[in-house]
Specification:
The chain has 341 residues and is an alpha+beta fold. It has a single domain, classed as L-amino peptidase D-ALA esterase/amidase. It is built from five helices and 13 strands. The strands form three sheets. Strands 5-3-13-12-11-10 form a six-stranded mixed beta sheet. Strands 1-2-6-7-4 form a five-stranded mixed beta sheet. Helix 1 packs across helix 2 and helix 3 runs parallel beside helix 4. The mean pLDDT is 94.
Length: 341
Amino acid sequence: MRPGPLNLITDIAGIKVGHAVNENLRSGVSVIVPDKPAVIAASSLGGGPGTRETDALKPETLVSEADAVVLAGGSVYGLDAASGVTAAMGSEGRGFPTGAPKPSPIVPAAILFDMANGGDKDWGDTPPYHALGRAAYELRQSSFTLGNQGAGYGAQAGQLKGGLGSASVWHNGGVKVGALVAVNPLGSVVDEKGRFWAQPYALADAGAAEFGLPALIGEIPNATAHPLAASKLAAAMGNTSIGVVAVAVDLTVAEATRLAIMAQDGLARAIRPVHTPFDGDTIFVLATGTEKLADADEARPLALAELGALAADCVTRAVARGVFEAQCLGTAQSYRACFGG
């Protein structure tokens, strides 16, 4: 296995991503947009999720496809970013047909808490996230930077600056999975020496590691310390990692739901502890349906299991990349500032 050409979620054909940030606010928004409506599902395993329209994604409901997914900072205020995207898509005639003059775009969303990071949150009665969501949608493209970007701009991962991470995996002649994660957990992504918990899952690309300092590459993280070591104990309420997994295959909503559940294992491999009472930990899955999961129905469960395992590994790498690429912001020190490199 190796990374896709960009090592981004956009290695999945038909997926584009847009970002908008407000540096003074120390927050931002990321929008994941398929070229055509894609089958969608979600899994939330943390004790403090903040989401929009996830009830509509259950297998027993009418809706099976989404027009976009929004990840935002801003806690509950950030959910308004999805309204901005909805308005923009509706004006273009994109969305679920209802017989009304305008369609209804399906735009699920999840938010993270970056309200206590020192940015100027004195926005009066007009939170800026509606405008940020619309701006991110207009800026969607295939290539983008990581770290202090989009929904991860104001994030903090344990005691380190968090950020936006992405990764993809190429296997058996094609890109199988892409993942995008805004990393803002209570837990730590590294041990006391700076070794990423995700280190065993790093893929080589042109002889260079995806993340981690050269001196630490190949070392095994030390899991004998207390599980809350280097966590965000001083601000336990300010957390949540949120992300999107994209695949090209023709999943049903039930299959996409299983894939989202399996992809959550990627958070568990990269963050210690995870799925706490203080984290949201929501993962969406977008399936574009341009390829067959399997040639025969009886082969689908095994193919789905393989895809889920790849998705979990991809999420693991995306988490580490988001923190590795992040830069210092305010009092939040970056990985490189703390461990060198």
